[in-house]
Amino acid sequence: MVKVEFLGPIGKEPLELDITNLTQLATILQEDETLSEWLENSAVAINDTLVASRDVELKDGDKISLLPPVCGG
Amino acid sequence: MLELYDGALDVSTLLDKWYKEEATSNYGAFIPFVGTVRSEDGIDGLSFDIYEPILNSWYSAWEEKAKERGAIIKMAHSRGDVMLHESSYIASVFSPKRRVALELIDEFVEDFKASAPIWKYDLKNNERVYAKERSTAIKGSGILS
After folding, report:
1. Under an 8 A CB cutoff, do B115 and A40 touch?
2. Residue B71, φ and ψ in degrees, nearest 5
3. pLDDT by residue (tens digit) across B114-128?
4. Which of A17, A45, B57, B70 is the most buried (most CB within 10 A)?
5. What is the C-alpha to C-alpha distance for residues B122 and A16, in angstroms, rounded to an integer?
6. Least Cα separation, residue A61 to chain B (angstroms)
7. What residue spans define the domains of chain B?
8. Are B131 and A66 in contact (CB < 8 Å)?
9. Which CATH architecture describes the domain B2-134?
């Protein structure tokens, strides 16, 4: 199982999913209408490291974070 | 050094503290940037969410970049609500000579705006509204769409 958390303004409760890659995650999240405005502009981190492609294998216990557009300061 | 505070920053105390910390470190230049909440569009203030694990790694990478140029950085940011005319953000650079500090403060603050995992909300009419139009997608966003 991996944990998926939605940061900042996305405002969605975390998910626990039995998946092994980010393409599976994309398929699941694309079915959620509440996320339609967020997927195209959110960055993805695995265990608090940003990733630039889906070409990553997920391990049991991994934490995946979705980071929507930022504006500090 | 990265410092996070609940609510507004105490600007004069932080600048005084940082100045004194480096007063005898032989840096010829100290350039602080102080961000203040302005009155615009009828807001009462701003509010911030921070994701600390990634903010810390982003900041550590900048500490290394500064070190390579003989400089150091210090930064403070608010969590939660910050009202009009209060400060939510201070960044500063100390370096041996002015040119490095002037360039680094510009690069550092610009990358902060584009990359630091902090989310801003307008406080208006007792609501907390995500500042979507002023926000920037982090580089590499959209891989799940």
Report:
1. no
2. -115, 170
3. 999 999 999 999 999
4. A45
5. 32
6. 17
7. 2-134
8. no
9. Alpha-Beta Complex (3.90)
